[in-house]
Amino acid sequence: MFEGATVELSGVDCTHGRRTVVRGVDLRIPGGERVALTGTNGSGKTTLLRAILGLHPLAGGTITVGGATARTAQDWDLRRRAVAWIPQRQAAGRFPLPARELLHSSGAFDAAMTAAHDLGVSSLAARPLHTLSGGQLQRMYLARALGCVAAGAGVLLADEPTAALDFAGQEDAAKLLTDIPVTLLVVTHDRALAARCDRVLEMAGGSLREITSREEDAR
Question: Which domains are delineated in the chain?
């Protein structure tokens, strides 16, 4: 089992307007466990990840990371340093921000550059983000997340991190993601990535159920 912070959700509800999109979710991910979250579009997967980071407000329940609950602005700042994040739709921004600056924002530039090299995009570090292809931008965000881990993040949340990659890129990214010594919660439709995780959960109508785990497979 890898090291990493334990993530616990208890009775978590989230809404979009009057519509409940996450309902009564209870989930405990022990430190170092790798969990894949599957389900149809609109089932609440992305909202759940965003709620862990405080990017979507809770309508009910609690979320702790490493035993800590975030309430104040300082708490949320600490949470976002403890939890690395790969969003589903990577933003290039409105300004010509060089990819190098995205990697710098990880807090561990050398580690992020090493990851960018492993992902085949280190030569693009001087390029503005908006000039990169979807796959190249996704690799840069993955490299940044690996830099965040090197800077001390104990949890990695990833939302469809292999979606814009070709088959070879998907395999490389899946291996990198599941080899990182942190707690991993990844939203994915990539079966190969899900198969590398310890547990696979399905979200439907805002509720969560477990599909399979390594322990069940062993039996």
Answer: 7-212 (3.40.50.300)
pLDDT at res. 65 = 95
Rounded CA separation 13/23 (Å): 5
Residue 71 has, within 13 A of its CA and on its CB side, a CA count of 4
Per the model's pLDDT, the better-predicted residue between 172 and 183 turns out to be: 183
Q: Is 77 left (phi over 0), alpha (psi -120 to 50) or beta?
A: alpha
Whether the pTM exceeds 0.70: the reply is yes
Residue with structure tokens 């039996």?
219
- The distance between the two most distant Cα atoms of the chain, rounded to a whole number of Å, is 53
